[in-house]
Write a structure and sequence with these properties.
Blueprint: H1 3-12, H2 18-34, H3 40-44, H4 46-79, H5 82-88, H6 93-125, H7 134-161, H8 166-184, H9 187-190, H10 198-201, E1 205-208, E2 211-214, H11 219-244
Antiparallel strand pairs: 1-2
Helix pairs in contact: 1-6, 2-4, 2-6, 4-6, 4-7, 4-8, 6-7, 6-11, 7-11
Length: 245
C-alpha cells in the first residue's frame, strides 16, 4: 500500500457518498444521545445519563451504517472491474483493500471522535454543573474507535469478496441483533460475539434498579480485539494477493 493509493481512495470518496453516510451516523448518534437532556435522569446524573444514551445510540446505529460505509468504496470496483484495472497498474487486490481501509477508516475514526465530542459539548451547553468525567469519556471513545474499525474492516473484507453488497447489508442488520443481544448477556458470554458484543462490554455506565452506576469497561479485551482484528485483516488481504496471482 502506498500513499498515492490512499490519496486516490480519498479522491474517489467525492462521488461515493461516503461523507454523507458518516455525517448521518454522527447526527444520528448525537440526536439519540441528547434526546434526554431535559429528562429527570439527566438532571440527577448528567454525564452518566449522556454516556448511557450515547452507548445505546452507537450500538443501534453503527452495525448498519458501518456496513453501508464499507460497501461504498468497494462496490465501484465490482461495477467497473476496478480490481483488474488496479492490478494492471501495479496495485494488487490486497493492497487496494488496505488502501481503502486506511482512507475510509480515517473517516470512521473522524466520525466516531466527532460524535463523542459533540455529545460532550451539548452536555456542557445544557448547563451541566457536574465535573466532566474525562477518564470515562475518553476511555469509552477510544474503545468505540477500536470496535468501529474492526467492524468496518470485517465488512470491507466481505464487500471485497462478494459483488452482491446486499449480503453485507444483511450482515449489518444481523449485527444490530447481535449487538442488542450482547447487551443482555453476561460479560463473559458477550466476549464470544466479536465485534458486536463488545459494544456492550465497553459501556461505562449501567442501570441497576433505579440507580445509574459506573462500570469497569473491558478495555484489555477491546485492545486484544483490535490487535487480533488488525492481524486477521492483514493476513486475509495478503491471501487475496495469492489467490489472484
Amino acid at each position: 500500500m502506498t500513499g498515492r493509493a490512499v490519496a486516490n481512495e480519498f479522491a474517489k470518496m467525492r462521488r461515493l457518498r461516503v461523507v454523507p453516510v458518516a455525517v448521518a451516523m454522527v447526527l444520528g448518534v448525537v440526536a439519540l444521545s441528547c434526546q434526554g437532556l431535559t429528562g429527570p435522569d439527566f438532571a440527577e446524573h448528567p454525564w452518566r445519563s449522556l454516556l448511557a444514551s450515547m452507548s445505546l445510540a452507537v450500538s443501534l446505529l453503527s452495525p448498519v451504517l458501518l456496513a453501508v460505509l464499507a460497501s461504498r468504496p468497494v462496490d465501484i470496483e465490482h461495477r467497473g472491474n476496478g480490481w483488474l484495472l488496479s492490478q494492471t497498474s501495479g496495485l494488487s487486490p490486497g493492497e487496494l483493500c488496505r488502501a481503502k481501509c486506511a482512507a475510509t477508516g480515517a473517516v470512521v475514526v473522524g466520525a466516531t471522535l466527532l460524535q463523542s465530542g459533540l455529545v460532550g459539548a451539548l452536555g456542557e451547553l445544557a448547563g451541566t454543573t457536574a465535573a466532566f468525567p474525562v477518564r470515562q469519556w475518553l476511555g469509552y471513545t477510544a474503545a468505540i474507535v477500536i470496535i468501529n474499525l474492526v467492524l468496518f474492516a470485517l465488512h470491507l473484507l466481505l464487500a471485497a469478496r462478494l459483488s452482491n453488497q446486499l449480503v453485507g447489508l444483511g450482515l449489518g442488520v444481523l449485527g444490530l441483533f447481535l449487538t442488542v443481544t450482547g447487551s443482555v448477556l453476561p460479560a463473559w458470554l458477550a466476549h464470544f460475539l466479536p465485534p458486536w458484543g463488545y459494544y456492550a462490554l465497553v459501556s461505562p455506565v449501567e442501570y441497576r434498579g433505579e440507580n445509574m452506576v459506573w462500570l469497569t469497561p473491558a478495555y484489555p479485551s477491546t485492545l486484544a480485539l483490535g490487535i487480533a482484528g488488525g492481524a486477521v485483516f492483514l493476513l486475509l488481504t495478503r491471501l487475496f494477493d495469492r489467490q489472484e496471482a
